[in-house]
Amino acid sequence: MSATPMNVPTFRAVHRQRIPFHDCDPLAIAWHGHYYKYLEIARTVLFERFGFDEAFFRGEGLHLVVIESRCRHAFPCRFGDEIEVQAWWKDVEQRLHIAYEVRNLTHGRRAARAWTTLVAMRGDEMLLETPDAMLRQLV
After folding, report:
1. Is the residue at 71 inside a domain?
2. Cβ atoms of 62 and 131 closer than 8 Å
3. Which DSSP symbol is given to 8?
4. Which of 14, 51, 56, 111 is deepest in the core (most CB within 10 A)?
5. Residue 7: inside a domain, yes or no?
6. What is the domain range of residue 115?
């Protein structure tokens, strides 16, 4: 594994979408649980930028699991509102710590801040450090 601390990439992935009707409650407000779906889409954009796709993980015999997540809501998103979700790396050495910001573009307000923490696994073994193959992709 890497002996020296690594610089965290500064790239920010961006995903934009409108809030669909099927994501809303009877008051036309996006249900809070759907925010994790929006975060996942932005995280996928982030991963794709660094070549982390299914073929990469299969080839390395790895998979990732979310071990922790948090979302703090600040302003509602309603049916038809346009949102932007940004995702970026906060830490990559022992785990993949990803931060997010959800902006309600229709109202010009931050809707939420969030983060997820993922760790790499090989088979049933949780790895204590991010594998070198992944770290090489992040430079």
Report:
1. yes
2. yes
3. P
4. 111
5. no
6. 12-137
Considering its fold, how many domains does the chain have in total?
A: 1
Q: Which pLDDT value is given to residue 130? A: 94
User: How far is the CA of 75 from the CAs of 6, 49, 96, 110, in angstroms?
Assistant: 35, 29, 27, 7
Joined tokens for residue 60? 């390395």
Contact 102, 40 (CB under 8 A): no
Using alpha carbons only, give the angle 32, 41, 87 rounded to the nearest 5 degrees: 90
Segment holding 17, helix H or strand E: strand 12-18
Q: What is the CATH number of the domain that holds 28?
A: 3.10.129.10
Amino acid at 5: P
| Nearest of 109, 114, 38 to residue 76 by alpha carbon | 109
Find where tokens 């994790």 sit: 36
pTM across the whole model = 0.91
Whether residue 10 contacts residue 88, with contact meaning beta carbons closer than 8 Å, is answered with yes
4 band by pLDDT with thresholds 50, 70 and 90: very low
**Tens of pLDDT, residues 103-134:** 999 999 999 999 999 999 999 999 999 999 99
- Distance, CA of 134 to CA of 63 (rounded, Å): 11
In a domain, 123, yes or no: yes
